[in-house]
Write a structure and sequence with these properties.
358 residues; alpha/beta; Arc Repressor Mutant, subunit A; Rossmann fold; 2 domains; 7-stranded mixed sheet; 15 helices
Length: 358
Amino acid sequence: MKRDPTKSWTPDELSALIRSYQGAAVLAAAAELDLFSRLTGNPSTARALAKRMTCDRRGLTILLDALAALRLLIKDSGCYSLGSGVADVFIARGVHPGLAMAQHQANCMRRWGQLARVVKTGRPAKRIPSVRGAAGDRESFIAAMDNTSAPVAEAVVQRVRPVEFRQLLDIGGASGTWTIAFLRACPSATAVLFDLPPVIPMADRRLRAAGLRDRVQLIPGDYTADPLPAGADLAWVSAIVHQNSRLENRGLFSKVFASLAPGGRIAIRDILMDDARTGPLSGALFAVNMLVGTKSGGTFTFGELREDLESAGFGQAAVLHQDEGMSSIVVARKAQVLSNRHGMRPPGRDQGSVEAKE
């Protein structure tokens, strides 16, 4: 849907926009404190809840009243209980799990609050752990990625046509959401999940619960520093390229190219920007998220991704699917027989020109 670039803003609309963070901040604080689970089937007064949660009573009372004003809680005779539908989303095992994403967004909010300083200095925002600590923040991030990806994974995988492969390499595979979807779509295949050491136990638990552990090799490592496991004929790069600069992506694509079997494919799932870089709106805002959260990340156009894939040796780059969010799909292929006579460029070429553009 195209937005009207000539929209005339009213003072009230602009005032509402600048205050729109307030409700989000209240909800984020409740999520970080895991407050909603404390009230599941157990209405409580502020005094009793503050004691159970070891919180300052005045601070918690004000937060509870704000949540009640937002209708996320119900306040009756001094007791607070959950609003309708809240438990479905903001309890860890709810029907539509959203607690981990709310906790992750709270971390993002702390970085967004430093946006002006980031723009001024060119340095990413200072990372401030939540009350849950760095380990808790990492766990909520991994869970949030699963909560958002799992409901769409099956449909997205079906867009990677043909859904046929011998071995999948899931780079930065987190807790296995995409590996599970791909293996269910291709029952004869196996997979290698490659991610940082602290993430591997989470993947092990998820894959065992899915009954797929015997088809997956778990390899700890860092794609920025370590070579990728070799031999796969399909490499899945999901929600990774936005963390990098174009130069860093060229390095990653070169590693993927080297690891793939001849004729193998790379499939990239990420936001895809239009040539003006102002649409989709979600992509423009996500670029801000990368500005405050990474040293050089951003969002990219298909033309940029195609150039960077070709610099690594890939050909036949194409957009299989484009949407407003994170699930646009770009694919490219490694030739069966490599030959510079056919215009194939060896990995790492032209990196200087990209660096100059950045």
